[in-house]
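Ticket #4471: structure export looks truncated?
Reporter: QA, pipeline team
Priority: medium

Steps to reproduce: submit the single chain below to the structure queue and open the exported record.
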Amino acid sequence: MKTEKNKNEIITAANESRLESAHYSEALTAFAVGWKDPENLKSMLEFIAPNVPVGRRFEFKSSANAEAFYSETDDIRSSGSDFKRVEYTGETVYAKTHNKGLTIRVDRDDTTDENWQERYVHLLMQRLYRNEIRRALQALEQSAKTKDVTWDEESNPDGDLRNALVEAADACGIRSNRMLFGANAWDLRANAYDAQETAGAFRAVELDPKSLASKLLVDDIKILRGRYQEPGFNKQALVGPDVYTFFGDNVVTKDEPSNLKRFVTPAEAGYNFRVFTEETSKFIDITVEHYSNIVVTNPLGIQRLKINA
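Actual output as written to the record:
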């Protein structure tokens, strides 16, 4: 990392070798842990890839574990005998969390207001969460079974969504309980029903995400409106005109059947993020770091509808 050549307020990848305990900021770390997220990036990431605390090196079951959904009537222990033993039979995979972070260099001339450090930590937190969401979405896309559908005045968008849920259940034995819309896909659904001018279409177009989730028997539907920008490109939608269906559970263990998990290694005091500051005569480098690894632990049943108008 060539920080000595960075101009004022240039963000770079954090270098783990520079993060010494002498530069650790307890106050800014507390700010990062209690950070208020105006874009709801944190909750969106948890929706797509639920958080699982682990050590730096960990293992998990990679396949869909039907045992997690079994129900039996032979769980009664006879006198002198043991309880029935339950085992997970999926393949064991060994992995580790990755050290991720960003550094911003601030000129001392720009440190005049009282909360300037918190402002830059806020900026880095947004970038780091946006990076994680992009990784989670890439993992969804790579593992999903994709189907092209057209939503117009002759289509039934909610019927297509219901069929995707049925196909997911047929593929892995689990009905998807979460659905993620790109903003354009939500608009295309509304446009299709607007064009039909029937009583059923009028009712369908008035459904909000919560009401549509109830109709489709899923726990939650979220619409991802966020965008990102890469150097030399226009702002890109985080999700295009797509709808993803998948299974997720926020009360997770390493081996339960959520399609995606975000394995996280907490640092000191159980914090998921740490902040470091390194000062020179003219500059102050602020670094926010964390340890995580987003993994598709169960690829079965992830569905992607690619919507065409």
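Status: closed, not a bug. The export was complete when the record was re-opened. Leaving a note from the reviewer for reference: Residues 116-143 form the longest helix (28 residues).
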